[in-house]
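G., the chain you wanted modeled:
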Amino acid sequence: MPNGGRVAFTLLSILFTSGALLLLFFTVLDGARTTNPLNKFWYLKAAVPSNSGINQPDGYSYWTNYNICGGNNGVLGECGPIKAAYGFDPTNQVQQAPNVFSSSHSFFYIASRVYYAFLLIGLFFTFVAWLTNLAGIFGRLGSFIAMLFAFLAFVFDAIAASLMTAVYVRGRKDFRDNGIDAHLGVKLFAFMWTVVALMLLCSLFYAIGICLPSKGLPPSSWPQEQLRREAAPPTVGESTYVAPSVGYESGLPRSSYERAGKLDGPIDSTTGATYVR
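Predicted structure as tokens:
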């Protein structure tokens, strides 16, 4: 029978992994569609016109995974052509971009594209961790497999969240330092760091599940139970071997079995051992 504690931790992990998977899907699909609720998700907006000629009712350019969009009060509207791993490159994507982005072009562009790659890898391992969740109910091996994938998902999700934060927080700062109003899309940042926390908790839950016994006595009682069984006196009529008397002082009991029964069994002429009956 599965351990009750392991079942409880596994069910919590299933809940947390499902939530993390949903948030990752929202993050990956950001910019792919402008339907509700995806039209409320973006990384950064800055008060500069886009090079793609899109309609920008509020005067802001909104960066997503796949393009730059126009919008109105934080809700995406018309977007440019979709391109996977679009990258953050204000120098070539918007007009009036500060010169600081020209000198940091490589950092912003490469880091944002690497972020997208880690985002997809994190999504893959989170999905595999979700599939292997039920294996954690049935024993330590199942918990170890689930923990392995949950931890891998945590690592890649954490790297993705760190790269995302480094790119867009610095981008906002550079825009503001040059007198251009810019704001972060807090929803996607909250999504990514929540995913990181959830996958870390799942890894810890499975580590606890590995430490729980599959069935029977709790681990803390195993040594005491073993000692109790070893110290139990022999059953009446059962032959029990008693160590030879060589090296023992006369009159001292040689074992707990000698104290427990009468030494009336046969004596081994070779070793001097006595059997208790």
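The first strand starts at residue 44 and ends at 46.

Shout if anything looks off.
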